[in-house]
């Protein structure tokens, strides 16, 4: 007996079997899970902990994220770009051992700098807190690398499961409340440990760990990794530094409000990140770039429009869940969401250049973004408070997009 399948379901099944969309679905689900769990995590934290504790925790977690950003050395991009050309074991073992050593060294150096330069965060001088903070930096860095390994393997389901375990951080918030702001950090750390054990188990099914760096792979990927490293630092450091800057300029309460609004608003940016990452993976495996760029652009804006409308309609209610004091960040939330429309063009351009190994133009664009965003944010923060950061974000991405259009015309892409 033949069962009639509606045309729209056949079309949906066809698209879900497309590697670009299939991997995008799992990556997007992972990012969506991260955002939703982050929403719940910070909502509970905001209810259980004081706004000052939340502000300090935001600065510490942003600092740990900054550590893993510096520690990856661009290897997470080389994993995807060179994975089809090297044995799985060589890529995985080399990547893990390098980022473990670098994140350990950078974590210790960063902690010393906090103790000497930041009176607000100097309590990491406590040996127990110091060990937790450095270990958090190391394990979260490994999580970034292993996530990219699963993406490069096209085993994005494992990437999703890894982040399910990281989501367990919500469960540790209540028992660690006696630690104050470090209870929030400790909750996240405990969840990363659980996820780390899962990653070791899964990867052991595919390779034998020998924890030796393969010199041939490192030498051949070094130029590409280093250029991506510089480009990544220039693009992400300003956003990771911003909670700390807001903390020092405007205080703990505004730092908490900024972080919550940015976390919710940047959900839209996860849409562009997800699809551009899949574009990068498929291009690295030799798939047609022109065809996939068009499909990626259509998919991104088809999702951004309804998501932005939801932010505009329900943003105030969402912020109010965290507490009435967070509603003051509504304008910032809307501006962050709006900036995702302009950030999409930038993300697609970066994916194309990663496949083409043309990172020099990306580095130049990111240097402009670095200076423009930090400079405008600092200036506008004095006039508009945290909302000034949102204005700075929108203006920065508009300028970058105009430069990208100029580059594309010069290269005769359009």
UniProtKB/TrEMBL annotation:
InterPro entries: Poly_Biosynth_Transport, Polysacc_synth. The chain crosses the membrane at residues 20-44, 56-75, 96-117, 129-152, 164-184, 190-207, 228-250, 256-281, 293-320, 332-352, 364-384, 390-408. It is a multi-pass membrane protein. The keyword RNA-binding does not apply. Pfam families: Polysacc_synt. GO terms for cellular component: plasma membrane. It is found in: Cell membrane. Keywords: Cell membrane, Membrane, Transmembrane, Transmembrane helix. PANTHER family: POLYSACCHARIDE BIOSYNTHESIS PROTEIN, PST FAMILY PREDICTED COLANIC ACID TRANSPORTER. This is Oligosaccharide repeat unit transporter. It comes from Methanocella arvoryzae (strain DSM 22066 / NBRC 105507 / MRE50). The lineage of its organism: Archaea, Methanobacteriati, Methanobacteriota, Stenosarchaea group, Methanomicrobia.
